[in-house]
Design goal:
Pfam families: Peptidase_M3
Family: Belongs to the peptidase M3 family.
GO molecular function: metal ion binding; metalloendopeptidase activity
Strand order of the largest sheet: 3-5-4
Radius of gyration: 24 Å
Number of helices: 22
Helix content: 55-70%
Organism: Hymenobacter lapidarius
Cofactor: Zn(2+)
Length: about 575
Amino acid sequence: MTLIAEPTAESATDTSRPPRYYLPEDFTVTDWAAIEPFFQELQHREVYTAAELERWLLDRSELESVLSEDLAWRYIRMTCDTQDNGRVEAFQYFVNEVEPQVAPYDHALNEKMLASPHLSGLDEGRYGVFLRSVRRASEIYRVENIPLKTDISTKQQQYAATVGAMNVVLDGQELTLPQAADRLKNPDRAVRETAWRAIQARRLQDSKSLDVLFTELVGLRHHVAQNAGFSNFRDYMFAALGRFDYTPQDCFNFHQAIRETVVPLIDDFDLERRQDLSLPALRPWDLDVDPSGQPPLRPFGTGEELLEKTITVFQNLDSYLGDCLRTMRQMGHLDLESRKGKAPGGYNYPLDETGVPFIFMNATSSLRDVVTMLHEGGHAVHSFLTRGLPLGADKHPPSEVAELASMSMELMSMDQWHVFFPDAKDLRRAKKTHLESVLETFPWVATIDKFQHWVYENPGHTEAERHGRWAEIFDEFNQRTVDWNGLEAFKPYLWQKQLHLYEVPFYYIEYAMAQLGAIAVWRNFRQNPTEGLAAYKRALALGYTAPIGQIYAAAGIRFDFSTDYLRTLADFIREEMAAL
């Protein structure tokens, strides 16, 4: 088998599904009875040579890719309309009726492979990273966790439904929370305050039920960890996420580095903002408005315009990048605009069989939406660059790599932002705002990550203890010059807006690690755009066939989150801001 180091531009325009070699061409997922015979065949197939073991691996990967894509579409359709009971039921059917049946076979197939006398005949350089992950998965598997994980998946979906149903009425108009948040950029301070209070009050209405839901999730997750022989869920997740390259203590050190290096810079930004706005004190609703007093930037009007301009930006950078988004548009693999009943947030969902992902987001027409589209577009490019890799597992690198793809795209694309902001003053505002937000990423990530460590190190905590600890951590890293007087009732619940805490626990510190890497990629790009972009693509095309450090090295950067490295790259951002 041959790795694809550099896909051609033509591969991004291919809308056909790759041929199947194991499953029938017309096979579709209906029920478990239709799926199980293939797992049984894999489990009982005799494997006599290393070549046959490779063929067995490819057949298993094809089956897993088909199931993965079927689940993906069920999730996508559900999040596009959380109020459609049919879509919700279709997703829940897979979670409740298919996934629990797959899990024992998945473990049995891992054991079969690891016990094969021909395992040593596989190329270690080609399969080493994959086998490392399989061994770890085998170590932590427990059959008694299958029903617990089903319960967890169901409860996680409750979060999306609850938040997706949140709306507020402002000036007689019903708005989603992302739409209402646009008013926080309004130069009229009264408009901003009204919007901020309405958003927080709406969140507060469901705060108790979301607290109960989170407590239930913490309990279930702790039970899963104990079943697998871990003292807490944090340690279990470090194993489950395949964190071979760093430890919890490294995370704590990173938190401290952020506290010492970046938080003072954000304090300076906030003090400058207060002075520019001529305010006696900053309030929470003053943090998103342009400090010059100008109206919010309006880089696009509709989702179609957002997509068309993003395609132009990508095309100007590299024709292959533009082709990726054109193919997604042709296949209908985008849902961009915010609307009632749509789940919150944004994502790029890889589709393992076709190799053409789906982008979901809640655009309203802000700069943040542009950045989100570019971010998810970076993930999409990553999916295209890995679509030719033989094993499905190779297409799913850890988040430290996946987020490098997206965050680097945000920064490298800035040379083309005139497509969205033809006015030079608007362009400068947009770039300055985004670079500030790049640095602001670090304190918020540290806040969420430190909070998660505490939550799962202390699984028996009370809601009151959780609220108190959250407020302490929040104050350590965020808004230290902002006046929260009279708003204390809202602060204990701010963490509930972070869907990662409910849906993908411990998936967050990677954003800060990848943000550091993305700044380094951008620095290389600024010095040599052609080679910087080529190195970026070469690194992403590796998928997960190499350890994180080697993938970063292929991009011409270091996997390093030390205080010195953080300070060096933060200084580079400050220099770029000063040059605007």
